[in-house]
Write a structure and sequence with these properties.
Helix content: 25-40%
Radius of gyration: 17 Å
Strand order of the largest sheet: 5-4-3-2-1-11
CATH architecture: 4-Layer Sandwich
Distance between the termini: 32 Å
Shape: globular
Strand content: 25-35%
CATH superfamily: Carbon-nitrogen hydrolase
Order of helices and strands: EHEHEEEHEEHEHEEEH
C-alpha cells in the first residue's frame, strides 16, 4: 500500500500546435516517460488533444478512445489528468479523466458549458452532483473544468480536497479573472489549486499553482501546508 506523500511534483502541459491530435499525444507520452512515478501530477489544459474541433467531433471522440487505452498502458505511478471529447448514446461530452496505475481512477463530465463558445450546441451538460472529491494514495483531489471555476457552489462541493485541478481554455481577455478565481479558490478551500490553460492566440497560455495561503508557488506541492493552514484557521 502506498503511503500518503508529503510532497508532489507538478507538470502542467503547455505545448500547443495547430497540427494533428497525434502530435499532442506524443508530446504527452514524452513527459510521462520522464515523470512516471508517484510523486508527479501531470495536468493538461482543457481538451488538450483535440481542442474544440466542432467540425470533427466523431474523429475527436474516436481519437479520445484510442488515447485513453494508450495512456492506461503507459501511466504507472504518475497521476495524469486531462479532458477529452467522448461520444455516448445521447451525444458528446467534455469529460475529465484521471489515469493512475494503468486505470481510470476518476472521471467527471463538464457540467457548466460556456455559451459564448457555443459549447451548449455541441456538448451535453454533465451532472453537477458528480463533481466531488476523490482519493489517490491518501491525497484528496478535486477537479473543475474551465468555466466551472466561476461557480461558488462547486467550490463548496469540493471542500476537503487537498488539491483542486483546473484544466482550462480560458479567454485571454479575462486572464485576470482566471488568476483571481484560482487564488480565491485556494484560500477559500484551504488547499492547493493547480490551473493550466493553453490554446490559440485568444486563449490564456499560462499555468499557476496557489498554496492554501493564496501564495503562488513553484512546481512542488507541499501537502503539509494544507494541514498547517487548516489547523491554524479552523472553519467550523
Amino acid at each position: 500500500m502506498t503511503s500518503r506523500p508529503s510532497q508532489l511534483e507538478v507538470l502542467c502541459i503547455d505545448f500547443f500546435s495547430n497540427t494533428a491530435y497525434d502530435e499532442h499525444l506524443q508530446y504527452l507520452f514524452e513527459k510521462i516517460d520522464k515523470r512516471n512515478d508517484y510523486k508527479n501530477i501531470i495536468l493538461a489544459p482543457e481538451l488538450y488533444l483535440s481542442g474544440f474541433d466542432y467540425e470533427n467531433m466523431d474523429k475527436a471522440s474516436a481519437f479520445s478512445e484510442y488515447a485513453i487505452e494508450m495512456l492506461k498502458q503507459k501511466v504507472d505511478e504518475a497521476i495524469v489528468v486531462l479532458t477529452l471529447i467522448r461520444k455516448f448514446d445521447n451525444g458528446f461530452i467534455n469529460q475529465a479523466i484521471v489515469i493512475h496505475n494503468h486505470q481510470i481512477a476518476h472521471s467527471q463530465e463538464k457540467s457548466k458549458l460556456f455559451r459564448l463558445g457555443n459549447e451548449d450546441r455541441y456538448f451535453i451538460s454533465g451532472d453537477t452532483k458528480l463533481i466531488t472529491p476523490f482519493e489517490i494514495d491518501g491525497v484528496i483531489y478535486g477537479i473543475v473544468i474551465c468555466f466551472e471555476l466561476r461557480f461558488k457552489e462547486l467550490w463548496k462541493q469540493l471542500e476537503g480536497s487537498d488539491i483542486i485541478m483546473v484544466p482550462a481554455k480560458w479567454g485571454k481577455s479575462r486572464e485576470e479573472h482566471f488568476e483571481i478565481l484560482s487564488k480565491a479558490l485556494a484560500v477559500m478551500n484551504q488547499c492547493f489549486v493547480i490551473s493550466t490553460s493553453s490554446g490559440y492566440e485568444d486563449i490564456v497560455n499560462n499555468s499557476m499553482i496557489y498554496s492554501p495561503n493564496g501564495v503562488p508557488c513553484s512546481l512542488t506541492v507541499d501537502l503539509r501546508e494544507v494541514t498547517k493552514m487548516r489547523r491554524y484557521i479552523t472553519m467550523e
